[in-house]
Amino acid sequence: MKRTSRDIRTANRYEVLRRLIAASPTSRQELAAATGLSLATVATLVGELLELRLVTEVGFEDSAGGRPRGLIAVDASGGALIGVDIAETYVHVELFDLALNVLARAEEQLRPDGSRPEQVAGRVAAAVAAVVDRAGTRAGRVLGVGVSVPGQVDRDTGVVEYAANWQWHGVPLLDLLAELLPYPLHLDNPLRACTVAELWFGAARGRDDAVVVNLGTGVGAGLALGGGLHRGVSNSAGEWGHTTLVLDGRPCHCGGHGCVETYVGAPGIMQHLRELGPHSPLLHPDDQTATIDALARAVAEGDPVARAVVRETARYLGAGISDLINLLNPEVVVLSSWVAARLGEPLLVEVRRAVARHALRRPLAATEIVLSPIPTDPVSLGAATFALEGALRSVRQRSGTTVTTGRAAPTGRAVATGRAVAAGSRTAPSS
Amino acid sequence: MKRTSRDIRTANRYEVLRRLIAASPTSRQELAAATGLSLATVATLVGELLELRLVTEVGFEDSAGGRPRGLIAVDASGGALIGVDIAETYVHVELFDLALNVLARAEEQLRPDGSRPEQVAGRVAAAVAAVVDRAGTRAGRVLGVGVSVPGQVDRDTGVVEYAANWQWHGVPLLDLLAELLPYPLHLDNPLRACTVAELWFGAARGRDDAVVVNLGTGVGAGLALGGGLHRGVSNSAGEWGHTTLVLDGRPCHCGGHGCVETYVGAPGIMQHLRELGPHSPLLHPDDQTATIDALARAVAEGDPVARAVVRETARYLGAGISDLINLLNPEVVVLSSWVAARLGEPLLVEVRRAVARHALRRPLAATEIVLSPIPTDPVSLGAATFALEGALRSVRQRSGTTVTTGRAAPTGRAVATGRAVAAGSRTAPSS
Ligand SMILES: [Zn+2]
Ligand SMILES: [Zn+2]
């Protein structure tokens, strides 16, 4: 039990800002009613947010004869947040205002021969510079940059411990980026980015317990429990893709057999297509995206093979999601990432049917299964949210009592030396 | 996000008392160092525990020249806690002092024709009366009774929603007990009782994330995440026994196929024995306990069939535990309940081997797998712990700001009318 009153204060600060982003302007009284916090606590938290210039006073509302109530709103122009989505073949970067509207986007391609850590860091820095440039004066001060990289990430040290795509082992990516970018930096992976995006802005908002099922090439389950991200003891929770669904089943690249991922990740779905329609023109053997797109179109047109593939995928997915429901008893299960987005409603309908056959009655009755409602790239949104959380954690930084997990690079000079350490922020072992 | 500063205060009160139970006497300074809380917070919490008469001042220690430090200890004789373990064929009751030493035990048999709710409540009341009588004046004031009943339990209303053993549906067991017992009552199920016992007194103490794998006739995984019990949105989290390990595998009484429970629960282990040693004398077809006992003895004697059965059980159990490790990334996995206790070390060794083959490297490296170190019945200990937690939650009850989830029956008369509602405690819908 290492949770302290400081953690609860940070969590409450998150909660108040979340409400303000969802509905601005609002009064301290309404915030207190919505959060269950006392008016005094809300007043303190709003004071901190005002001091951080994340929110602003915007006037008064009449309160039925009583004293007029002060209204607070998110100060959209009070700063910018940048989210970086590093994928196998591209770097996608978005710059957000504080209401989390996208002000600018940039994309850089990653070629197979350009995947050395220094090269990837260079592409990231170029794309970040591009969005800052495009947003121009609207960007204002950049509060931080969140970076999502696929793999096992130590967010405290900023080291990518393992990235299967590029066979990276122990890459100090945050140090490399700190030499190039003069902003506070936060590193994590796409699964946690998507989960935090749902928690702040999507289907998990206001829910105590939610599971975000990520369906892409790889597969994972982000766990938002008790209103916060469950990271596990070494920040690797959520490896649902490598839980066993069929003991001794299909071989998996993790070395195991019968993992969930081998049946419901994009390559697994392509395998169902090969088995159910060996000569189907829907299959693009070397192109996952084209195959899933073709499947989605064919399902819409009533193609029987495509429908059978979605049903078969949902049979496995439904069993796996039932396991999550039985084990964790969540309020909501969110289907996220590109495979879920493209197969959409037809997949959702079949998954709900399969779950209804598998899950226990009591937890099933308490759960809904939905598609992610986030209309933009959830990974860059979530990455930007890590930067926002970093800014919120730093409230007491000046007094020296808080250690931030992100790295702050306050001056160009500090950045140029690669020793980007602000007073009160954490020093990486390597610096 | 419904967690409030009151919740964190309750959690901190739990934590301070846990430390005191583990090591008494101790000073406020040592408690602050051990918990990471400020000395001022610890002083406030200790003051509350003193007021509740759960702890007591026991003198001073020198602090190397400084002011002598006050020492605090658990006041073992400050009150009694009663834990009730209702099983299919018996009711086992233990009375504890506040250091959680057992002062008295009682057991009542449940006959198949004696399983109506009123009959079971009567057996519970008789056994509770017996332990209070046996403990005599040592019992002091009874702070509460925790009751564990196998099945789906609504702990807020005290209703057993479903108990498969007896086909109970919607039984208001807490109301029935409140008519017979003049103590605050707390209802939950054995999985959560065992988990809370590990969290307070066993292998999960001081751990942030732990999984308590219960191996009995049924199978479950109690989740202690972030230092507290993860209940899920409808208090049914932990149904790991009914997650799929072999899609379309062995039929399960839940209606599914290939559930973990069908391979590693006592009946599943008996099935392995039937398959691996069809004529084995170890099999007692109608007696799970005798069969598991015979297996344990035969393994110790090197019997090859018995060893093969343990290996086969561990193959499934290892795959299932790997799933928990990959998904939740816990610090510790605890093997608990009677099957784990009887098969003991030989099972543990095989399970560790199987997990090392299945689990992902990163979460595997962060996890240890251990047998439960609790020497007595963990279910009645955990049930008593629910009563202790109830007493700790009630600190502010007199001011009317706290709603307790247990039911308090302050006077004999209130009990006799079945309307056992104390000021500030929760009224059941039926009363
Ligand atoms: Zn795998
Ligand atoms: Zn089952």
TrEMBL record, chains A, B:
Residue segments, region Disordered: 399-431
InterPro entries associated with the record: ATPase_NBD, ROK, ROK_cs, WH-like_DNA-bd_sf, WH_DNA-bd_sf
Pfam families reported in the protein's UniProt record: ROK
Biased composition (Low complexity): 411-431
Gene3D superfamilies cross-referenced by the UniProt entry: 3.30.420.40, Winged helix-like DNA-binding domain superfamily/Winged helix DNA-binding domain (1.10.10.10)
Family named by the database record: Belongs to the ROK (NagC/XylR) family.
Protein's recorded name: ROK family transcriptional regulator
Organism: Streptomyces sp. 900105245
